[in-house]
Structure to design on (646 residues):
């Protein structure tokens, strides 16, 4: 996968999030990227780790800086919101010529944008952490306790809600056959074992 | 009976004095740290800016000094935000954990560059795949060589190592407070590393670009919740249950703590980021400096066993700029020596010359203009007579929280058009053998249009 294919994928994710109600700040791109990468198995080319309260990718942050340097994206101030990504002067050319990867995964991008676009930052952080604790192998209510462990400022009600909403999203992704087969089978083993 | 601690004072052209107690001086006196006296901070930049001969040694002392100042400011109780989570993570001044983490921070700042290779970043690509100098720093801090020192200082080596290299390179996860401490040293915007190197590199290169009011800036740094949020929509017709959710969501905007500033420091932070921009464009990306890095890398590939540096700490600390310079000097004098032509490029001023730089006009006609032109030149003149380099800032750090006098926390870009519009610096350049430079310029001028279509 070339760096330009990777950049096009992330640009398309940002634009899809915007079409679905997001102002596409960095948190939306980070958590959207995390869902694409980890839940839906899309080869984003970046890795995520636990940082402060939840999953984060330094490589994705560096890619966004690179994309800004190359004119694929720009950041705009939209008070009172946080800064928003929009397409830069060379974004159109990028999407016209390097969209192979994005085209292959457009259904996955649309899915993530539909489910995450309208959420605010706090909700995104909680639900991304719900995915993270599920990937740790935890199941059921133990995920709630772990989520609170990672995010001590979150109360039980919101933690439970985040886990429920994540399960709903995962279930819909499975119905739409967007989750790679291997991930599904690992989850089944975890739930019954 | 434990001996009393004494204080050593080191004069520093940037910070005036850097002070260490006698336990901390043991870290400075260790072979691992003394090695930094022989690692140039800016690689071969002294071939362009003759004064830029400063070393990682004094830079690391400077980083420790700045990090300590930032720590004292952010932990000052008058500066701690009245927020439950932030108050919970910041230790009280004078308490045991405040003293402990201050010492860990100072040592992490001092040791954060121990893993640097000869000539610093110029040689970074010659480590085995998957290894960066930060991994070597981590290993050295945890190594046997420094174990006794940490024991006497009563700090955990893993705490020093994690904070020195940060979450990206630490094999152990960092907690929230540890992440903040790491930001104090290597953070994208207000890191002590950045503050020191801009001031120091500017001073030694003899340019004014890197100067900014760091005193004012440091005085306004705070731990704040990240400002990347949107107020939730409100609908008065919703049910009581939904009001509970709304109220919870409103009160629960992102709480992730990070380094930011009080509003009074906004202009100093603009100056910092513009200083960085100018230092990058005028010094770090100077085309002659860039090509010297390439020639150095070529020499090292022929001179090092298997063309790679040994990342193990024992081999690492025996390798400094002195060994490389000595080997290059010998190779330069002997036409039959491996690496002779690369050494001659460096020491004989036979470096390759800039012939093409990536630019928006050519990119408009073809997004891959740089790669096409580079490939065409290599095909015409041979790969051994053409070199190229692409480099960009990896992290800019212009988005950070700002505490307003009202108590609200805003994103910096919403408050400053200056910050919003600072460009990310990047550059891609093709260089050619000086013997073919004029011919290649002439050839490219006639062929460029065909190459790009």
């Amino acid at each position: 996968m070339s760096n330009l294919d990777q950049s096009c994928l992330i640009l398309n994710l940002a634009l899809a999030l915007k079409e679905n109600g997001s102002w596409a700040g960095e948190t939306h791109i980070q958590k959207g990227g995390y869902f694409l990468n980890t839940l839906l198995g899309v080869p984003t080319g970046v890795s995520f780790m636990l940082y402060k309260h939840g999953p984060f990718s330094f490589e994705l942050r560096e890619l966004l800086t690179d994309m800004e340097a190359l004119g694929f994206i720009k950041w705009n101030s939209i008070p009172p919101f946080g800064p928003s990504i929009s397409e830069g002067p060379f974004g159109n050319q990028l999407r016209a010529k390097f969209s192979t990867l994005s085209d292959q995964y457009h259904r996955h991008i649309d899915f993530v944008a539909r489910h995450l676009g309208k959420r605010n930052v706090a909700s995104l952080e909680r639900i991304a952490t719900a995915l993270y604790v599920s990937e740790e192998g935890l199941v059921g209510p133990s995920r709630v306790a772990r989520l609170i462990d990672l995010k001590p400022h979150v109360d039980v009600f919101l933690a439970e809600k985040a886990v429920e909403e994540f399960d709903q999203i995962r279930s819909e992704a499975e119905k739409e056959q967007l989750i790679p087969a291997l991930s599904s089978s690992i989850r089944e083993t975890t739930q019954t074992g | 009976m434990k001996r009393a601690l004494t204080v050593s004072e080191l004069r520093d052209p940037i910070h005036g004095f850097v002070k260490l107690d006698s336990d901390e001086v043991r870290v400075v006196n260790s072979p691992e740290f003394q090695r930094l006296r022989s690692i140039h901070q800016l690689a071969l930049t002294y071939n362009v800016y003759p004064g830029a001969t400063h070393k990682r040694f004094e830079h690391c002392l400077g980083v420790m000094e700045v990090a300590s100042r930032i720590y004292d400011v952010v932990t000052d109780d008058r500066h701690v935000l009245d927020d439950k989570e932030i108050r919970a993570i910041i230790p009280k001044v004078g308490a045991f954990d405040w003293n402990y983490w201050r010492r860990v921070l100072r040592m992490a700042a001092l040791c954060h560059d121990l893993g640097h290779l000869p000539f610093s970043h110029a040689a970074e690509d010659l480590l085995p795949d998957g290894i960066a100098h930060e991994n070597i720093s981590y290993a050295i801090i945890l190594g046997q060589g420094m174990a006794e020192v940490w024991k006497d200082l009563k700090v955990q080596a893993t705490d020093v190592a994690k904070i020195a290299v940060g979450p990206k390179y630490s094999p152990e996860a960092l907690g929230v407070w540890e992440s903040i401490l790491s930001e104090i040293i290597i953070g994208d915007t207000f890191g002590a590393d950045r503050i020191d190197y801009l001031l120091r590199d500017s001073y030694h290169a003899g340019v004014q670009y890197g100067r900014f009011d760091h005193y004012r800036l440091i005085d306004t740094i705070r731990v704040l919740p990240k400002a990347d949020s949107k107020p939730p929509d409100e609908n008065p017709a919703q049910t009581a249950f939904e009001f509970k959710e709304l109220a919870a969501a409103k009160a629960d905007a992102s709480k992730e703590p990070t380094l930011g500033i009080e509003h009074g420091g906004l202009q100093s932070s603009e100056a910092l980021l513009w200083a960085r921009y100018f230092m990058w464009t005028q010094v770090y990306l100077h085309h002659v400096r860039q090509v010297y890095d390439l020639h150095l890398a070529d020499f090292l590939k022929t001179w090092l066993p298997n063309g790679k540096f040994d990342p193990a700490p024992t081999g690492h600390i025996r390798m400094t700029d002195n060994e490389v310079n000595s080997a290059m000097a010998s190779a330069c004098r002997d036409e039959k020596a491996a690496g002779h032509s690369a050494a001659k490029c460096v020491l004989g001023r036979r470096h390759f010359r800039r012939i093409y730089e990536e630019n928006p006009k050519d990119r408009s006609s073809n997004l891959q203009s740089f790669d096409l032109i580079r490939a065409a030149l290599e095909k015409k003149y041979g790969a051994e007579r053409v070199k190229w380099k692409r480099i960009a800032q990896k992290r800019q750090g212009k988005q950070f929280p700002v505490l307003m006098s009202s108590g609200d926390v805003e994103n910096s870009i919403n408050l400053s058009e200056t910050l919003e519009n600072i460009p990310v610096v990047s550059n891609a350049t093709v260089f050619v053998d000086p013997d073919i430079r004029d011919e290649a310029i002439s050839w490219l001028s006639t062929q460029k249009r065909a190459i790009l279509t």
Residues 156-175 of chain A form the longest helix (20 residues).
